[in-house]
Amino acid sequence: MFTSRLAVTALVCLTLLAPPAAMAIEEPRHTVIETSGPFQIRQYEPTLMAEVEVSGERSDAINKGFRVLANFIFGNNRVQQKIAMTAPVTQVAEPASTKIAMTAPVTQVPVTPGDGQAAGEQRWRVAFMMPSQYTMDTLPLPNDPRIKIGVMPGERRVAVVFDGFSTQANLGKHREMLEQFVKERGLTPIGPYMVAFYNDPFTLPWNRRNEWWVPVAP
Prior knowledge:
The protein has one domain (1-218): Alpha-Beta Barrel (Multidrug-efflux Transporter 1 Regulator Bmrr, Chain A). A six-stranded antiparallel beta sheet has the order 1-2-8-10-9-4. Strands 5-6-3-7 form a four-stranded antiparallel beta sheet. The chain has helices at 4-17, 58-73, 168-184, and strands at residues 30-36, 39-44, 47-55, 89-92, 108-111, 123-129, 148-152, 155-162, 194-197, 210-216. Strand 1 (30-36) and strand 2 (39-44) form a beta hairpin. The chain has three helices and ten strands, in the order H-E-E-E-H-E-E-E-E-E-H-E-E. It is globular and about 50 Å long. InterPro entries: Reg_factor_effector_dom_sf (IPR011256), SOUL_heme-bd (IPR006917). Keywords: Signal. It holds the Pfam family SOUL.
C-alpha cells in the first residue's frame, strides 16, 4: 500500500525541518489492554490534531503537507509559538469518497479529485497529532487557512508492531497479519487501517519501530 520512498520522504522532511531536540518524544496517550506476541489491543484517549489537504503525486503531496504543517508548529501561528513534535507519523488510505473530517490521527489520506484539480491528480490529507498539553482553546491558531484543527475521539485500536524498513513487502505482510488477528478475535473494524512510523530515516532497520493500527468496536 505504501512504499518505502513515501515513508522516507515524509520523515526526511521532518528531520530537515526540525532540530534534533524537537524530534518526536510524545506519543498518543493510551492504555494497553492486551499483548499477544507482536499484537496489542489498546484504548486511546482523544487526541488533538492539525490537518491539511494537498494534491499531487504521493511523495510530492506528503512533502507539501508536511512542510505546511511543520511551518505551523515551528512558529507560523497567531502567537509565533513553537509546538513540539510528536510520534508517530501515520498514513492511512480511505475510500475515495471520504471528505476532510477532523476525526483522523496524524495521517495522509487520498481524497476524491475535484475543485479544479487536474485529471488523474490525487488529493491527500496529511496531519500531525498535537502535544497533549494543548486543548482546542489553548492551541495556537495557524496563520495558514488551509490547516484545520480538530479532535480524534478516544477509541480502541488493535496494533501489530514490527521492525525493518517500510517496504511494500514488509508493510503488506504485517497488514495481512493484523487483518488475520482481527478476524480470529472476532473484532469489528470501525475505521481504516493506518500505518505508523516512529523513527527518522537514518535508524537501522532492526532498531526501527513500525506499526499497523485499526480502530475496532469495544
